[in-house]
Amino acid sequence: MYLEKVIRELSGVILTRGPKLCNFVEWRGHKVVYKRYASLYFCMGIDQEDNELEVLEIIHHYVEILDRYFGSVSDLRLWFIVCELDLIFNFHKAYYALDELLIAGELQESSKKTVARLIAAQDSLVEAAKEQASSLSNIISQATK
Amino acid sequence: MALSGMRGLSVFISDIRNCQNKEQERLRVDKELGNIRTRFKNEKGLTPYEKKKYVWKMLYIFMLGYDVDFGHMEAVSLISAPKYPEKQVGYIVTSSLLNENHDFLRLAINTVRNDIIGRNETFQCLALTMVGNIGGREFAESLAPDVQKLLISSSCRPLVRKKAALCLLRLFRKNPDVVNVDGWSDRMAQLLDERDLGVLTSSMSLLVALVSNNHEAYWSCLPKCVKTLERLARNQDIPQEYTYYGIPSPWLQVKTMRALQYFPTVEDPNTRRSLFEVLQRILMGTDVVKNVNKNNASHAVLFEALALVMHLDAENEMMSQCVALLGKFIAVREPNIRYLGLENMTRMLMVTDVHDIIKRHQAQIITSLKDPDISIRRRALDLLYGMCDVSNAKDIVEELLQYLSTADFAMREELSLKAAILAEKFAPDLSWYVDVILQLIDKAGDFVSDDIWFRVVQFVTNNEDLQPYAAAKAREYLDKPAIHETMVKVSAYLLGEYSHLLARRPGCSPKEIFSAIHEKLPTVSTTTIPILLSTYAKILMHTQPPDPELQKHVWAIFSKYESCIDVEIQQRAIEYFALSSKGAALMDILAEMPKFPERQSALIKKAEVAEVDTAEQSAIKLRAQQHMTNALVVTDQHSLNGTPQSVGQLSLVKIPSISGDEHTSADQELSQANGTLATVDPQPPSADLLGDLLGPLAIEGLPGAAVLSEPNAVSGLEGVPIPADDAAAIVPVEKDTNSVQPIGNINERFYALCLKDSGVLYEDPNIQIGIKAEWRAQHGRLVLFLGNKNTFPLLSVQALILPPVHLKIELSLVPETIPPRAQVQCPLEVMNLHPSRDVAVLDFSYKCGTSMANVKLRLPAVLNKFLQPITVSAEEFFPQWRSLSGPPLKLQEVVRGVRPLSLIDMANIFTSFQLTVCQGLDPNPNNLIASTTFYSETIRPMLCLIRIETDPTDRTQLRITVASGDPTLTFELMEFIKEQLVGIPTAPRPPAPPAAPGAQLTNPAAPVAQPANPAALTDPGDLLAGLL
């Protein structure tokens, strides 16, 4: 399968790179910008002519957004750096954040504050629906008792 | 830790994380997939919550890299849920699991549209995000107007409008026609006055795509871009939240400067002045700071400013500032900056007059060739390659040679190819060139492709002065203890041809040369032995008067190989033995090889195709093209006027990256047929006589053993068969000079595309035609990608389809002009009406200079594209097979003269043509059964059954039986299979004459242009070319 192959090959290329090297690799005629945060690697494939540093900072921007988001949600987290477990158990939230940041591969918002506000608004919509549903089911269960 | 809020999901994720190995993980995943599948089947019992949970699990499994081929419907159906939580999940999972070509997406178009035009802004956001990420052409056509409305609506909030801008960008990439230029350019200019920086950032990305396609329409945006850039660079009125590490949105700055690079120039003096002030400020005011992120962001802006300055071709002062900066960058500690410094220097080389300034940094660049980071080493290699010219070639090539011994394996092949090309292009004298190539073979024989040694042989053959030198060098290498087999090949060849020129030197008597070569024979493989045999025959011939002892020895070797199992060796041994016993007659037949016709270097072509993986051409490729005409002409240059040719100037206007990877050319083919492209107007371009003479100059691969099976083609003009390719060793050079030479072999490109769905259909120095196809039952949707490779527009572009009767083909409008370095996409709809092997032809022409170029190309809408593999069981197969009892529904034929294939190879061929090979149905292991379904408009989907019976004692004959419910289909399929098994897909077939587009496939053995035409065989030179 294509995705699996890409992941496997790229991991091979990127994981073997030492710590003091540049953040760009050329792979099968494509360019990949990557950055490591502790045990997490973020990668983004770009066109040959794209501005590599700009993309590198999009990655960092995203990480800061995730950090702020998970930092505010989780009580267990004590300090900076979004951790692997946050992302794995909340991969869907990572998607929400990504969708507020990038569309069609282009940056849509560069204000962290705005992104955080929008994700919070979405979360509260989901929460509201949940409460509504549970109160509804309460009413139903009350009524059918 | 489990924050996901869904216990089932968290448990599953924990399970996966606790798996000890991949196998356990796979088992757990399979179990879960089975569970989800069962749940989805009885859908009644699923609450929205459960449905959500399962599609999240599916997405998680998908993320792990597993194939998730069901449940797409469930994900898509969540989109139409009335409540936000379900809808949100539906949209996100759908955009992750499906791609734009997925059928289910079509089902969702209406729902998506309702969300977009509805009043709920959260729904609008979800829909716009999904369409912006995976929307395809159909979305583009049905949604673009609605998205445009949202983008310019005064009642929409920024959160919707910024998504609308990027959504529109995606739709525009899918189909540029959906944005109506006339109405939209003013709106676009208004959008640039936007106060909200999020909306402005998105709009700027949209503008980049729009201007890259057509800058003329968006002139009014230019001054606004400059204003925006000024405002950002001076940090005027930028809200705090839009600064990133103290820098006003670096992304918006970069985008704005990118947009400006698509305008050819800035005319208004005031705007120009303010722009240059800003650029000056960025160039001078960017310092290296401690914080990594701040540093990256400010340098992202700086590098974009450099690119813009390069593009605007600013006053020389600014340009030299740029080079100075880059010179500083390539020596800094920070690896990213080093990498970018090298990369941008390579880009800058396209601005010709900085060449000399960049040369000052040569030493530093050579140091980077030894950088610990392979990414940086690659950039350094590219830069050295790009900056090489006659003045520094010697130094650079010698550095590359030195580096070769220590280079990583991943780079050696590229390195040796580049060294070989540079040596060829810029050799100050030819003996140096020979030295370099021999050293290359000596140091990195494994990485030296055959083309490289073919090329040195061609050179030596065509330059008499060089022959004694080359022979002497070859003799020297033979004395080395362990030499690479390629060295044996090239030395043996050179000494066979030219050792008689060394006769008086010590150690160079025929006998000594012979024993030096013969010593190597036990160490070489069977592909080299034939070359050695030829050499022996030649040495024998050159020994006058004959040396009876040597003769006896050589004859003994020939008779030893007369019974060799390798046919090639056997044939040569027998022939040389017979020829050499004829005495004087031998002289004629084994005379020295004639000169090779000069053609484009196979090596340089290889370098060109090596990097075409991306939509945009890399600088190195551009440069290779620039230098194509300079290739290999050192001697001619000196003799003609002594000055090197000037290098054409290229501007930095970028190709829009509309197509992701369509340009991929898997066609690494080196041989080149004459093709069918010819200039209709034979009037030669008057100005550049030298360029015209030298243009197609450069030679092809050396005649190899495979010469007799090489593809062939007919010159389009008169239809006169010209032996193509290697066999063309005797064709006079002038024949080619008036035509635009195709790059690569048109025939082979066509046959390759018969097997795959995307690739390059045609390429020449001016244009590349790529093709991407999707086939669904009897329908095909093709997109032609017409890419102008030049810096001037291609005019009078015309594309006509000559369809055979069984295909209905509609080509959308092809623009008359292709702008410089732009790519246009032309969709093509195909419908198959009934079975036939005829082929559609694209008649393509454009104006190039003063003459028209015209080419006729077969389109890969061939029979097998309308087949879909299907597996049948024994229970299904036999009744069907029996019920189709005989002609005309079931045909049987014994075919002889098949190319011998193992059953496995045959099965592979079948699979590649969409026939399913059914294992185990036929009890006889020498037989093969296959099945497929054929789709056409006039008959229902038709099951086809095929049986091949082979004879293990004679692989050249077999019996084919084909059965289907339609007589024409049975017949056509039978013929199709015969063609595949009798002729190799690359077998010689002339391209279609325009009047009868279908003729070439129905008659594979057309008498035209057989390579071994009798006239050529009587020529001794050609005969030998065939043998060697």
Describe this structure in words.
The complex is a heterodimer of chains A (145) and B (1028). With 145 residues, chain A is α+β, with helices and mostly antiparallel strands. Chain A is built from five helices and five strands. Chain A has helices spanning 2-15, 52-73, 84-89, 91-101, 112-144, and strands at residues 24-27, 30-37, 40-46, 102-103, 106-107. In chain A, the strands form two sheets. Chain A has a three-stranded antiparallel beta sheet with strand order 1-2-3. The longest helix of chain A has 33 residues, at 112-144. With 1028 residues, chain B is α+β, with helices and mostly antiparallel strands. Helices cover 49% and strands 11% of the residues of chain B. Chain B has 42 helices and 17 strands. In chain B, strands 12, 13, 14, 15, 16 and 17 form a six-stranded antiparallel beta sheet that branches. Chain A: This is AP complex subunit sigma.
Keyword list:
heterodimer; A: 145 residues; alpha+beta; three-stranded antiparallel β-sheet; two-stranded antiparallel ribbon; B: 1028 residues; six-stranded antiparallel β-sheet; five-stranded antiparallel β-sheet; 11% strand
Give me a quick take on this structure.
Chain B: A 1,2-diacyl-sn-glycero-3-phospho-(1D-myo-inositol-3,4,5-trisphosphate) binds at residues 7-8, 49, 53-57. The complex is a heterodimer of chains A (145) and B (1028). By secondary structure, chain A is α+β, with helices and mostly antiparallel strands.
Query: Which segments of chain A are poorly predicted (pLDDT under 50) over 5 or more consecutive residues?
Result: 74-80
Overall body shape of chain A: elongated
| CA(first)-CA(last) distance of chain B | 72 Å
| Secondary structural class of chain A | alpha+beta
- Overall helicity of chain B: 40-55%
- Largest sheet of chain B, described in full? 6 strands, antiparallel
Radius of gyration of chain B: 33 Å
Strand content of chain A: 15-25%
Total helices of chain A: the number is 5
Order of helices and strands of chain A: HEEEHHHEEH
Strand order of the largest sheet of chain A: 1-2-3
What is the overall shape of chain B?
globular
Oligomer: heterodimer
Rg result of chain A: 19 Å
The percentage of residues in β strands of chain B lies in 5-15%
Low-confidence stretches of chain B are 611-738, 984-1028
Beta strands of chain B, count: 17
